[in-house]
């Protein structure tokens, strides 16, 4: 499951979606599939995003996604 927030949600046009990915799946593969589905606008937003997998910060796009994992896509947020 991929959940999109703020600008990523606007670019994807959906709040969340399920992706079918090859095994082993990675954050990189999930993002590539999301870009394929939603186009250049989302690809641009993803360059600035940070990511959580099952609510834990991801520090590399080669992080493996287990079956049923939740990937949160978080663009930079303003304010405080």
Automatic annotation (TrEMBL):
It comes from the Bacteria. It holds the Pfam family ThiS. This is MoaD/ThiS family protein.
